[in-house]
TrEMBL record:
Name of the protein described by the UniProt record: Outer membrane protein H
A single GO molecular function term of this UniProt record: unfolded protein binding
Superkingdom of source: Bacteria
Keywords on record: Coiled coil, Signal
PANTHER family cross-referenced by the UniProt entry: CHAPERONE PROTEIN SKP
Coiled coil: 64-113
Pfam family of the protein (one): OmpH
Membrane-spanning intervals of the chain: none
BP-aspect Gene Ontology terms: protein stabilization
Annotated source species: Fulvivirga imtechensis AK7
Family under the similarity heading: Belongs to the Skp family.
InterPro entries: Chaperone_Skp (IPR005632), Skp_dom_sf (IPR024930)
Amino acid sequence: MLVAVGVLYYLHFEGKKQTDQDEPEVTQTLEYTIGYINADSVLKNYDFFKEMQEKLQKKGEKLEVEYQNRAQGLQKEVNDYQRNVNNLTIGQAKALEENLMKKQQNLRLYQESLAQELMKEESKVNRELYEKVTAFIEEYSNKNGLEMVVKYNQGSDVLYANNGMDITQAVISGLNKQYKEGKTGTTTDTKADTAKVE
């Protein structure tokens, strides 16, 4: 009887040890190479964006001048009408009023079309900017072994990042070099100027 209990005891604990050994230990260490950029600095120092902003500003100013010229022309017509209304017949006055109201409505539509044109231009620039920056960051990441690049500035979800992970200057330099080469038509290797970020 004692021998039987001893054998059962042995088999019970031996089986438990075997089961414990069969289950693999779940310890997985994930390591990623990450970099970050300060988006505000990139925008502030990227020549393409600065030039596009300048062009948009000039275009906005030009459109504003065109609008103001039309508005002043209409205001002059309104002033002339008010000055001469007593010399007109009721029919003439009514026709002039309707004409001025139509011109005022057209001026409002013209103003809206100018605003839409400017918004369309801004949207186009923003889309092109996004495409250029993300394409460069993808190329930079592939060359430097980065698996992720995040935007780090006030308001982003990243609360802390080591300065060694900051690739902002490298991205700005690379983007400006690429933009300059694109403007002059030269093509050279755009290999990143900084060491691999770890």
